[in-house]
Amino acid sequence: MQVIGSILSGAGLGRWLLGLGGPGLIVVGLIDNSVIPIPGGMDLFVILLTAHHPVWWPYYGAFATAGAVIGGYVTYRLAKKGGKEGFEKKIGKRRSQKVYKRFEKGGFSTIVVGSILPPPFPMVPVLMAAGVMQYSRKKFLGALALGRGIRFFAVAFLGKIYGTAIVGWFGRYYKTFLYVMIAAGVAGGVGALLYFKWYRPNHRPDPAGESRKAA
User: Fold this and answer.
1) 212 in a domain, yes or no?
2) Structural domain of 44
3) pTM strictly above 0.85
4) Cis omega before residue 120 (within 30°)?
5) In total, how many domains does the chain have?
6) Nearest to 82 by CA among 122, 110, 124, 40
7) What is the pLDDT of residues 149-165, one digit of tens each?
8) Does residue 155 lie in a domain region?
9) H or E segment at 77?
10) How far does Cα 131 stand from its chain's mean position?
């Protein structure tokens, strides 16, 4: 499809991944489930591929699910080795406590629901929390496969029906969309830098003060 080619003409990596077809979604899954995810990246590639080959939508849905599960499992294993201290350093103690509480109420449902929800829901902290809390590997993989399967098969099916219209719209406005995504990425990076380098160090609870209150 010429529209798809024009969309990715300025993105060598994107063009390469699109050329790989289904297996390329494994690579996207590894990147998307890392500590630096690509919000909506997997959805976009599934729609582009399905718009090009509508009858292959179950094939692309399956590869997207497999890629997301493999990428999620890598993050799970790394977090399991890193432990709670490393996890809390990455996302903050207060936020990590919220994730812990969700897992205590229902780890399986937390993973399934988080896997289905689209961006901007932060899925990586859920994957990491599962590893940190030593959640059952079989249950983790089952929940992740179920949630991601529901999401990406649905996205692939929508790509089959509406893919041409979506790609046509994206072909008209992809430069604007690209600039917005770059600006959002830069803003997010600056925000994260300010948070970790300035806000968190200056707003940590004073252990001496807490001990005095306890006394």
Assistant:
1) no
2) 2-173
3) no
4) yes
5) 1
6) 124
7) 999 999 999 888 876 76
8) yes
9) helix 57-91
10) 16
